[in-house]
Amino acid sequence: MRQLFEKLKTASLEEIRGAKNADALRQIEVKYLGRNGEFTVLIKGLKDLPADEKPSAGKLANEIKIALTEAIRGRREILEQETLAQESNTEFFDTTVPGAHYEIGHIHPISQMQYEVERIFGEMGFSIMDGPEMESEYYNFEGLNIPATHPARDMQDTFFVKNKFHDFHGKMVMRTHTSPVQIRTMERYGAPLRIIVPGRVFRYEATDAGHDSTFNQVEGLLIDKNISLAHLKGIMIEFLTRLFGKPIKVRFRPGYFPFVEPGLELDLSCVLCNMKGCRVCKHTGWMEFMGAGMVHPNVLKAGKIDPKIYQGWAFGFGLTRLTMLKYGIDDIRLFSSGNLKFLNQF
Ligand code: PHE
Questions:
Q1: C-alpha span between 307 and 293 (Å, rounded)
Q2: Is the CB of 260 under 6 A from ligand 1?
Q3: Which of 1, 27, 172, 227 is the most exposed place for a label (fewest CB within 10 A)?
Q4: Mean pLDDT score of the chain
């Protein structure tokens, strides 16, 4: 009997020590100490022993049972710690490893310039307006006092959109300038007004370093009582000086646009040579910058504003051209090229 017990003890302890995981350990426990376990069966047999052998055999059986139970408990603890260690190991997060580097985009140079222009005019009390890129002939031309015979309407200049979109305002075109938003804003908000309109415009043009079929403009419109070109000059000097971060001079020259009277061209002192004369300003010290003028009474009327009470000025400059000027970019096609060697410089 004693031998049987000892043998079972040795065998079971060995199995317990070798258990690879909690499940295996549980099976070993059942195998020896379960209801019909090998050890349980042996204990049950104790009652058949002769009376004088019972006490010592019982004592031994108890000792072994305690030893097995202890061994199982100990092994279980070790296994639990092992799994814990494994789990925390897979979740280990090394805070000293440099983060993964993701390429993220950045703001396009023309948009950067647009935000800058919006900021400066915003500080001077101008609101930012928006309008559709696909316009009716009415807003793009008629409302702006541009007659049907005007050469700008020619197929050479304008993208006409196929008839599906025609409405009572005439054929639809890709707007050739941001000026249609002058009328839209007057109709909607009336006078007084102080707005700029950055936006994309389209012209049917052969592409070269200086021309693209799509480019960006900024329209300006100020309407109030007792407004003169002196206000325009003041605003433009202030705007350009803030934008370039150095004093800029401007000059007016006569210019013709059907929607202004008088109309003018505004030049600015060359930002590259500071009027000393260089290749870019063709040694004149001046650079052409924008068209402008006092809003034509017919345009005010189209916008439902009474020209006897209100007057104002409007201007339109090329945002694309301004960006080229500011950064010395000599090819307009770079902006839409998607060329990262170019774009990543901004
Ligand atoms: N719309 C004109 C252009 O595209 C610019 C302009 C705007 C001129 C407002 C005068 C007044 O060239």
A1: 15
A2: yes
A3: 27
A4: 90
293 lines ligand 1 (CB under 6 A): yes
Helix axes 319-327, 229-244, angle to 10 degrees: 40
170 DSSP 8-state letter: B
Alpha-carbon distance of 317 to 292, in angstroms, equals 9
Residue holding tokens 């000293």? 96
Residue whose entry in the numeric block shows the structure tokens 């985009």? 105
CA-CA-CA-CA torsion sign (174, 175, 176, 178): negative
pTM of the model: 0.71
* pLDDT, tens digit (0-9, with 9 covering 90-100), for 60-113: 888 888 888 888 888 888 888 888 877 776 777 788 888 888 888 899 999 999
Q: How many CA atoms lie within 13 A of 254 on its CB side?
A: 2
The CA distances from residue 130 to 124, 200, 310, 323, in Å, are 18, 10, 23, 20
Give the highest mean pLDDT range of 179-188, 210-219, 336-345. Answer: 179-188
Ligand 1 site-directed mutation target among 179, 222, 264, 322, most atoms within 8 Å of CB: 179
Q: Specify the ligand 1 atom closest to the Cα of 178.
A: 1
Would you list the DSSP string of 126-143? PEE----SEEEHHHHTGG
Instruction: List the structure tokens of 240.
Output: 């350009």
The SS3 of residue 16 is helix
Residue nearest to atom 9 of ligand 1 (CA): 315
Residue 346 tokens read as: 């901004």
The CA dihedral of 114, 117, 122, 124, to the nearest 10 degrees, is -170
Distance of CA 65 from the midpoint of ligand 1 (Å) = 102
CB 244 within 8 A of CB 325: no
Ligand 1 contacts CB of residue 257 (under 6 A): yes
Residue 53 — φ and ψ, nearest 5°? -90, -20
Which tokens is 264 given? 């003018």
Q: Return all residues near 25 (Cβ < 8 A) that are at least 6 apart.
A: 16, 19, 72, 75, 76, 79
